[in-house]
């Protein structure tokens, strides 16, 4: 997989060379290239924004540098991802389907967003997804692009050491939140690991975990509960 990220703050994306995405790059499963949007400006001040038509607060990103950047970076097989609080909520389902894409292009907007014509034109030429990380507002798309990249990259086939842990975790499979987990020591500060987990009885352990997953899901995310 190749991922291109277009941003006015390339340094924000430095963590992509660390941790999981860094490991995937070294393993040859992933290539990440971060671009400075200002490289596609034409004026002396390398301007990327201007005031909104119709008035109102804040600034909007001008279409010309974005158009030139996408012309240079996109290929026939590109999926263009625009992180925005006005997008569709990003889910594990998006992460799963995007993990088999060959080319992702993240367009990180700042200010009040990118001129909509950029997104509309990209939509005519490639696949575009406007995705939100959640119901809160970040200052720009960079942190959202980082989070989405991590969620996607760890699902690339051959990437995770233990693929079984992918099928049991929260939001995978049945869509329940994950059950609570414990490790040694069995007694810590007067708190005990639940007896059933020490019993060696696999059937009872599985039943307990499912019950706990259900209880958590009903309590914390009733919208996901069966
Ligand atoms: N950019 C700003 N806020 C965002 C959010 N909540 N999700 C994705 N991109 C964003």
Automatic annotation (TrEMBL):
Q: Mark the transmembrane ranges.
A: none
Q: What is its EC number?
A: 2.1.1.228
Q: Hydrolase: is it a keyword of this entry?
A: no
Checking SUPFAM superfamilies in the record gives: alpha/beta knot (SSF75217)
- Gene3D superfamilies referenced in this protein's UniProt entry, alphabetically: 3.40.1280.10, tRNA(m1g37)methyltransferase, domain 2 (1.10.1270.20)
Q: List each copy of the tRNA methyltransferase TRMD/TRM10-type domain by range.
A: 1-225
Q: Name one GO biological process term.
A: tRNA N1-guanine methylation
Primary location: cytoplasm
GO cellular component term of the entry, any: cytosol
A single GO molecular function, which one?
A: tRNA (guanine(37)-N1)-methyltransferase activity
Origin organism lineage: Bacteria, Bacillati, Actinomycetota, Actinomycetes, Propionibacteriales
Partners and quaternary state?
Homodimer.
In which family does this protein belong, per the annotation? Belongs to the RNA methyltransferase TrmD family.
The subcellular location is:
Cytoplasm
Q: What is this protein called?
A: tRNA (guanine-N(1)-)-methyltransferase
Q: What is its EC class?
A: transferase
Q: Which reaction does it catalyse?
A: guanosine(37) in tRNA + S-adenosyl-L-methionine = N(1)-methylguanosine(37) in tRNA + S-adenosyl-L-homocysteine + H(+)
Q: Which PANTHER family match?
A: TRNA (GUANINE-N(1)-)-METHYLTRANSFERASE (PTHR46417:SF1)
Write out the residues that bind S-adenosyl-L-methionine: 109, 133-138
The job of this chain, per UniProt, is described as:
Specifically methylates guanosine-37 in various tRNAs.
CDD domains noted in UniProt: TrmD-like
**What does the UniProt keyword field contain?**
Cytoplasm, Methyltransferase, S-adenosyl-L-methionine, Transferase, tRNA processing
């Amino acid at each position: 997989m190749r991922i291109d990220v277009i941003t006015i703050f390339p340094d924000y994306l430095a963590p992509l060379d660390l941790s999981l995405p860094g490991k995937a790059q070294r393993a040859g499963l992933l290539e990440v290239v971060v671009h400075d949007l200002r490289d596609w400006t034409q004026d002396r001040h390398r301007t990327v924004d201007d005031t909104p038509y119709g008035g109102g607060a804040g600034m909007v990103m001008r279409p010309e540098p974005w158009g030139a950047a996408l012309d240079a970076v996109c290929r026939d097989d590109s999926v263009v991802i625009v992180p925005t609080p006005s997008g569709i909520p990003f889910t594990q389902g998006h992460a799963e389907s995007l993990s088999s894409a060959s080319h992702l292009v993240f367009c990180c907007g700042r200010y009040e967003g990118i001129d909509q014509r950029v997104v509309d034109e990209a939509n005519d030429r490639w696949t575009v997804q406007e995705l939100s990380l959640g119901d809160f507002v970040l200052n720009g798309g960079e942190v959202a692009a980082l989070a989405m990249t991590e969620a996607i990259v760890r699902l690339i086939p051959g990437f995770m050491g233990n693929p079984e842990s992918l099928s049991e975790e929260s939001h995978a499979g049945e869509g329940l939140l994950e059950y609570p987990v414990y490790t040694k020591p069995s007694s810590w500060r007067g708190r005990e690991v639940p007896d059933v987990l020490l019993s060696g009885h696999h059937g009872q352990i599985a039943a307990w975990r499912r019950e706990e997953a259900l209880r958590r899901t009903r309590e914390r995310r009733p919208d996901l509960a069966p």
